[in-house]
Write a structure and sequence with these properties.
20 helices; single chain
Amino acid sequence: MSDPAVEQAIARVHHEEWARVVAGLARRFGDLDVAEEAAAEAFAVAVERWPRDGIPPNPGGWLTTTATRRAIDRLRRESLRDAKYQAALMVHDDTPAEPTGPVQDDRLRLVFTCCHPALAMEARVALTLRLLGGLTVAEIARAFFVQETAMARRITRAKGKIAAAHIPYRVPSAEDLRQRVTGVLAVVYLVFNEGYLAGEGDDAVRVDLSDEAIRLGRLLHDLLPDDGEVAGLLALMLLTDARRAARVSSTGELVTLDEQDRGAWDRDLLAEGRALVEERLRVVAAGGERPGRYQLLAAINLVHTDAPTARDTDWSRIVALYDAMARLDPSPVVRLNRAVAVAELDGPLVGLAEVDRLGDVLEGYHAFHVARAELLRRLGRSGESRTAYDRAIELTGNPGERAHLTRRRDQLVG
């Protein structure tokens, strides 16, 4: 009979140790397939043995040792073992890289390997989410709005291209570091978002992923302290994560920003995030580079968190920031968020008109239907609102959000 406590412990160790195990194996063997498969085999052994033998004192060390043995056994079984070792040596470049900062972390090295410019941007992000964050192919596919089979092929092709191109497993030199940062930031932000609002499973949030993204964000900021977008992403994650304690109710229901207990927000994280945003504002005011996407998103979050209550939110400032965002990235999701802010400023009828213009492209996006449901509710159109809630509930995989949307729907009158 399975022990729920052991199962929970194994799941927790997987969240905490997957990236460390894979990254360590990638550094040692220089082969992402070997690293991922050996790590998966080690976790499979843990699922078999730990319920019987107990959780080892150092689960990460046990997994690393087991995975390393599995990797060596695999290489020994293959008739092309020598060629494999030679290929591994070609990929694992021991030549000291030009000093670029305090980066001695295997996981960050793995991010830069997966974000090599030889790969398409979508492949870089997807591969790193799989190898670093341990997200399933289904979770990654949902983040990209593509079919799971297509995402699986994309990840396989990306790993094959890294092997074929002998891409070295190391942090890039200073001269090519900056052009690689955009992909790394996209990876970190998607990892954070999956933790902030888990797409599926029993947990509304996955703290391990949020914490991992913030940790990587801090390392990137140490590495590139003058990069505005690195600072902006770190500020955005800090200001968002500061609300963690107020985001889920005691019954597991997601609590929206306007309903949160602002006294429960983490003041230290808010102060750290605010300081980063204010520093970037000073740089821009002094003639520095104009803010990018992450800096603008951080500024939007700062407006929200600076308001003593939801009613005090400066919506005109938020609309202006979304206008700037739309000039950089006129994507449907940015336009949807702007429309929600416009509804707060100019009324639900104006906001709904803007939201409805996005129906063709965002039909499969649950937040589109949430926005419609809330605006229709405010307009007293309960039947249409209920239909929109039903569609949003159907599309969301997060249990806390489903509970929140179900309650809102069931409160409708008429």
